[in-house]
Amino acid sequence: MKTMLAFLLAIGIQTVSAQGIIWKIDPVHSNVEFTVVHMVISEVSGHYKEFTATMIQGKDDLSGSTLDVTIKAASISTDNDTRDNHLRSADFFDVTKYPDLTFKSTSFEKTGENEYRITGDLTIHGIIKPVTLDAKYLGQIKDSKGTVYAGFKAIGRVNRYDYNLKWNRSLDAGGLLISENVDISLNVKMIRQ
Length: 193
What we know:
Elements: H1 2-19, E1 21-25, E2 31-38, E3 42-48, E4 51-57, E5 66-72, E6 76-77, H2 81-88, E7 100-112, E8 115-124, E9 127-142, E10 148-159, E11 178-192
Antiparallel strand pairs: 1-4, 1-11, 2-3, 2-11, 3-6, 4-5, 5-7, 7-8, 8-9, 9-10, 10-11
């Protein structure tokens, strides 16, 4: 029995090591933020309070890695309850029907010193579209307990109309209440598993 258990554990260890180094997000020291133009002349920003992410490191230089992110749509916050409830409604994210926003990378390319282009499938409102993030690796540090952390910052732009989030209003002065494009920013601290 002990021999069988040791064998099964060894197989599991080999499977994990064959995948690469696994990193999990530290949600307490990370954030997922967005900015959208409002009434043509100003910007409104917000963030999500609940999210998870796993990165499996490919090579030493991080190229070939994979990244999976899940964001709870209902955790959206713009520091305004009325606006947040509208964003959760069927006019926008319809969080009851579509509770998660997900990103699954399809490529992770090194483009310069500590710079990467991460392309993947972003699912919002049940619609999947390719999105590219420009990412910067901020380095690693080990704490007194031996835990290793890595820092990243990534930015990108999403057209919300691509995901059927088309609610809007025309302004008397011209233009629309809310822009089509949404800028996204991720400041992430990952923990090596």
